[in-house]
Specification:
Keywords: Transferase. InterPro entries: GlpE_sulfurtransferase, Rhodanese-like_dom, Rhodanese-like_dom_sf, ScdA-like_N_sf. This is Rhodanese-related sulfurtransferase. By secondary structure, the protein is an alpha/beta fold. The chain folds into two domains: 75 residues; 108 residues, 3-Layer(aba) Sandwich (Oxidized Rhodanese, domain 1), CATH 3.40.250.10. It has a five-stranded parallel β-sheet with strand order 1-5-4-2-3. Strand 2, helix 6 and strand 3 form a beta-alpha-beta unit.
Length: 187
């Protein structure tokens, strides 16, 4: 995606607005500047990007903006659309579909053939899994699965992707028989 097509990002935007436009911004800020990953380096939704940059060693806002946008482009390369997932499932029969939601969400509704990603399954995959196999991870709306995909890629699973928009988008675009739901804390 060319930079001109990226959503606008300015220092006077609140962190809530930044995260809405760039869902991976917190991950990007933490990876480069150790901002937003824990209590000691966290930020409030109402703080502006400029305020966060200022109180974190006066990081130049333009530098933070550029990094968030570059990370967003990198995140985009890890994603597959619901329609692309259908194609992958047809063309790669060994594809492993992993659900990173809670057990309760998984038991309520899941994509056909998906396995719940438990700690035990992660340990098994990291010990015995084929790092060249295609893995597609999904969550409810597509925000948390990027973190999980990055974790897998960081451990050598180079063919790991995540489902854009999560199971919710899959239900809307591919299989409306899958029940949709809303989690109150997502607001």
């Amino acid at each position: 995606m060319p930079t001109a097509e990226l959503p606008p990002l300015f220092g006077d935007m609140t962190m809530s607005q930044v995260l809405q436009a760039y869902p991976g911004a917190q991950r990007a800020l933490f990876a480069r500047y150790h901002i937003g990953g824990c209590r000691s380096c966290g930020f409030q939704p109402g703080e502006t990007l400029a305020q966060v940059c200022e109180r974190n060693e006066n990081i130049p806002v333009a530098e933070a903006v550029a990094h968030i946008q570059e990370s967003h482009q990198s995140d985009s390369s890890l994603q597959v659309s619901p329609h692309d997932l259908v194609t992958l499932l047809r063309t790669k029969p060994d594809l492993l579909l992993l659900d990173v939601r809670t057990r309760e969400e998984h038991e309520a509704v899941k994509l056909p053939g998906a396995r719940l990603l438990t700690q035990e399954l992660v340990q098994d995959l990291f010990t015995n899994g084929d790092k060249a196999q295609t893995y597609v991870l999904y969550d409810h709306t597509g925000s948390r699965s990027l973190d999980a995909a990055a974790y897998f890629i960081g451990h050598g699973f180079s063919e790991t992707k995540c489902l854009t928009g999560g199971i919710d988008a899959y239900s809307c675009e591919i299989d409306p028989s899958l029940p949709r739901y809303r989690i109150e804390i997502e607001d």
